[in-house]
Amino acid sequence: MKRAMRRNCLICCVTPTGFLWLAALALAPVLCAQAIPAPQAAAPIAIIPLDSKNPDAAAKVTGALEVSSGKAVIVASGTVTSGSQTTEVVLPHRGVLRVCASTTVKLAADSSVPAGETPGLMMALDHGAVEASFATGRNSDILLTPDFRILIGGPGAAEVKIRLGQHGDTCVDNAGQNAPYVLVTSVFDGGDYRVQPGQRVMFEHGSLREVVDNEKEPCGCPPPLHPGTNEFPVAQSAGLAPLPKPAPNAVSLTSAPPQALEPLVYKSADHAAQPAAEAAPAAAANPPTAKKKPGFFGSIGKFFRRIFGAE
Predict the structure, then answer these.
(1) Could you report the per-residue pLDDT of 198-255, keeping only the tens digit for each?
(2) Is the Cα dihedral 276, 277, 278, 280 positive or negative?
């Protein structure tokens, strides 16, 4: 096609008599450039802000992307990994996709959509949580998990929150006044479950047979903790935030190394009662008392014992 257009451009620059005008020769490149349409650049599917001031909170973006002015632009496909905070991924002309803390999501455009139509967004999630807040179109958006294929169909305005917990527990919240069509299909069993508008469902253990159709806990990003408060770390319990680092060991005030203490052992033999025979030597250790000399009545008594043969 391009070769034919170039040949027509060259023919239009030649007179019927076969002579080439100099002016036509100078205008030939311009006419040919106008005749051949330039290929249009593909529209980006996502724009991610990069926060260089806080490395822990900054998102990491990889894939086919362009980085400029502190933003990463995903053209065809890429991966977004949030840090310690939620990352807002801008979807041009549609809305935002919030990637919760410590969550990795893969993004790609649906290549099966015909040219000229807005492709649906293909998402893949193996842990963590996301919040989809964007307008749905003719082509559905799909989120894949290890156990489910979640279809978000339009038209409508999606306010869908999805969280993957431990043991495959998957929470899906289809909120909003103009809630879209959300269909959850099992990857292994082949069954499906439609999440109605305004419904919050928990699929326990990654199964459509263990469904809590009125889940109480939220499915999206946990609320941020405020410093100086005693709030329960919901993000850490849900696996959406790293555990705090342990405090360093306390430094001893003395430079001397700690001494090992001998274990305390009770020996009953050491506390046994001593027999009476063993106590006699202790009594013999006392000095003997001096004998008193007999008095007058003692001498008389001794005299009578001698007379009557008492001795």
Answers:
(1) 999 999 999 999 999 989 999 999 887 655 554 444 444 455 555 555 555 544 444 4
(2) positive
The DSSP H or E segment spanning 164 is strand 156-164
Residue by residue, DSSP assigns 23-75 as HHHHHHHHHHHHHSPPPPPPPPSEEEE--SS-TTT--EEEEEEEEETTEEEEE
> CATH classification of 46-222 is 2.60.120.1440, yes or no?
yes
**Reported pTM:** 0.62
Residue spans per domain, the chain: 7-35, 46-222
Q: Measuring CA to CA, how many Å separate 6 from each of 15, 19, 36, 39, 304?
A: 17, 19, 8, 16, 171
Measure the CA–CA gap between 98 and 161, rounded to whole angstroms.
9
Tell me how far apart the alpha carbons of residues 154 and 117 are, in angstroms, rounded to a whole number: 14
Q: In this structure, are residues 102 and 239 in contact, taking their beta carbons and an 8 Å threshold?
A: yes
